[in-house]
């Protein structure tokens, strides 16, 4: 597996420095939580991390570890990193369990990027979409959990007709001048 950063030359050289952990603010990143679907959606996410792996259970852990390491390298607040890890685990597990019929495998794509004071993570697949399933093996708690952990959650279909779960984690805890 090859992991590649797609950071462009417009990324400032101090992008991986910061003092989020030294912030004197006691308000967590959840301070400005928005429930339900976000009011506006970015036209696209220019990603810093992009992974596409087969939708297998063992790859959920791979994605969780890669994105966790990415967020830690950016020195994001530890509570935000843990919330992001859990939300990404839930979204990727949904792909593994629900996206493809009859236990078939398909691609599971994940992109993550830090822009405008927020970490955005998008999990997408080419499966059957988000549909009610009376035979679902899950308890139905994954999406409500993600909505609780993220600042915003959007469910939909992208321009390539892929199912997409877009999670945004606002960095309101990090002082403006110290954000990566």
List descriptors.
globular; Heat Shock Protein 90; disordered N terminus; alpha+beta; 180 residues; 3 helices; five-stranded antiparallel beta sheet
Question: Can you walk through the features of this model?
Answer:
It contains three helices and five strands, in the order E-H-H-E-E-H-E-E. The chain has 180 residues and is of the alpha+beta class. It has a single domain, classed as Histidine kinase-like ATPase, C-terminal domain (Heat Shock Protein 90), CATH 3.30.565. The protein has a five-stranded antiparallel sheet with strand order 1-2-3-5-4, with helices on one face. The longest helix has 22 residues, at 78-99. The protein starts with 48 loop residues before the first strand and ends in a 10-residue tail after the last strand.
Radius of gyration: 16 Å
Q: What's the multimeric state?
A: single chain
Morphology:
globular
* Corresponding CATH architecture: 2-Layer Sandwich
pLDDT averaged residue by residue: 75
Question: Could you name the CATH class?
Answer: Alpha Beta
Overall number of structural domains? 1
CATH topology: Heat Shock Protein 90
Q: How many helices does DSSP assign? A: 3
Going across the biggest sheet, name each strand in turn.
1-2-3-5-4
Unreliable runs, pLDDT <50, ≥5 residues?
1-44
Give the total of beta strands: 5
Q: What structural class is derived from the secondary structure elements?
A: alpha+beta
Main sheet properties = 5 strands, antiparallel
CATH superfamily: Histidine kinase-like ATPase, C-terminal domain
Q: How do the helices and strands follow one another from N- to C-terminus? A: EHHEEHEE
> Strand portion, in percent?
15-25%
**What's the N-to-C terminus distance?**
27 Å
* Share of helical residues: 25-40%
């Amino acid at each position: 597996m090859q992991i590649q950063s797609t950071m462009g030359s417009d990324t400032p050289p101090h992008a991986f420095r910061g003092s989020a952990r030294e912030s004197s603010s006691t308000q967590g990143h959840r301070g400005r939580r928005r429930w339900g679907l976000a009011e506006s959606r970015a036209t696209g996410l220019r990603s810093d991390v992009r992974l596409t792996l087969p939708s297998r259970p063992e790859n959920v852990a791979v994605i969780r570890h890669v994105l966790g390491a990415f967020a830690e390298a950016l020195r994001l607040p530890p509570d935000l990193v843990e919330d992001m890890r859990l939300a990404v685990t839930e979204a990727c597990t949904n792909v593994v369990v629900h996206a493809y019929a009859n236990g078939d495998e398909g691609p599971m794509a994940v992109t993550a990027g830090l822009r405008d004071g927020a970490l955005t993570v998008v999990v997408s697949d080419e499966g059957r979409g988000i549909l009610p399933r009376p035979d679902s093996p899950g308890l139905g708690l994954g999406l409500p959990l993600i909505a609780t952990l993220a600042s915003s959650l959007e469910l939909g279909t992208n321009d390539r007709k892929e199912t997409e779960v877009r999670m945004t984690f606002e960095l309101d805890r990090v002082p403006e001048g110290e954000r990566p």
